[in-house]
Write a structure and sequence with these properties.
By secondary structure, the chain is of the alpha/beta class. Helices cover 39% and strands 14% of the residues. The strands form three sheets. It has a six-stranded parallel β-sheet. It has a three-stranded parallel β-sheet with strand order 3-2-4, with helices on both faces. Helix 6 runs parallel beside helix 7 and helix 6 packs across helix 10. The protein is globular and about 50 Å long. The two termini are 32 Å apart. 43% of the residues are buried.
Length: 308
């Protein structure tokens, strides 16, 4: 029987743990972690994400600082705001919501954020720390959430708990946000890692060898049953909106709401030993890990030990 990896439930558990640790940080050190989120423009999806982040930030007892700037904001003005936030002792995490308007250079903006406050984990300093297995790296939130779900699943197997060590993990997608940091995280867990992408030949033959298959390409229901080995653990990072009237096999939760993953859930689930649904799988973990990163950053800035 296929196990459904419930990211929503695990994210709730993680947020509860973060709230308790934030309360202890306040009580013992008089420190309240603060997260600043910058939104440039009026992208409706980005506005929803920012609202959700603010709500959850406040719920765990952190301070939330929101900066909603008009689309016409110049790159110089945005960089000036980031410089101010870098110097603000009440702010421990800075997140610039992507995408940015086309006249602003994304990389220049991300590199302007202090690495110590880069809770998205996109700065080259944190990317380099992850690549060299340094424990103080701030790690990109979505792959960090995937790793937590995988570790939780394997450690809870009955009667034989397991680890990721020695397993062959195949990642479909090589983005800087998910694919590449996911590969580094899994390497640090002693997995054997293969990355597939748009130029990979015979991709199905590679994915069929995976003990762990992670799909992060943004192509609706691309991964079919014949791509997957019997008993594989499947992590679906994709969230794709499709026309609701089209037939969809996303019985993991997307059916009827126009949301499907990169994995054809109904086709793949019977072959997998465990699989994440869409929605309700990886998605809820992203904001929870953002809050975790903010707590980690606050502890590091103030020289307080952080328990990983």
């Amino acid at each position: 029987m296929t196990h459904l990896i419930d990211g929503k439930a695990y994210a709730e558990h993680l947020r509860s743990d973060i709230a308790q640790r934030v309360a202890r940080l306040k009580a013992e050190h008089n420190i309240t972690p603060g997260l600043a989120v910058i939104l440039v423009g009026d992208n409706p999806a980005s506005e929803v994400y920012v609202r959700n982040k603010k709500t959850q930030t406040v719920q765990v007892g952190m301070n939330s600082f929101d900066h909603h700037l008009p689309t016409s904001t110049s790159q110089a003005d945005l960089l000036a705001l980031i410089e101010t936030l870098n110097a603000d002792s009440a702010v421990h995490g800075i997140l610039v919501q992507l995408p940015l308007p086309s006249h602003i250079a994304e990389r220049s903006v991300l590199e302007a954020i202090s690495p110590a406050k880069d809770v998205d984990g996109f700065h080259v300093v944190n990317v380099g720390k992850l690549a060299t297995s340094q424990p103080d790296a701030l790690v990109s939130c979505t792959p960090l959430g995937c790793l937590m779900l995988l570790n939780h699943y394997y450690s809870s197997l009955v009667p034989h708990p397991s680890t990721l060590a020695g397993k062959h993990a195949v990642i479909i997608g090589r983005s800087n946000i998910v694919g590449k940091p996911m590969a580094q995280l899994l390497l640090n867990q002693n997995c054997t890692v293969t990355i597939c992408h748009s130029r990979t030949h015979n991709i199905e033959s590679i994915t069929r060898g995976a003990d762990i298959l992670i799909a992060a390409v943004g192509k609706p229901e691309m991964v079919k049953a014949d791509w997957v080995k019997d008993g594989a653990v499947v992590i679906d990072v994709g969230i794709n909106r499709v026309t609701p009237t089209l037939p969809s096999s996303a019985s993991g939760g997307g059916l009827g709401r126009g949301l499907v993953g990169d994995v054809d859930f109904a086709d793949v689930a019977p072959k997998a030993s465990a699989i994440t649904p869409v929605p309700g799988g990886v998605g809820p973990m992203t904001i929870a890990c953002l809050l975790r990163n903010t707590l980690q950053a606050a502890c590091a800035i103030h020289g307080v030990a952080f328990e990983h």
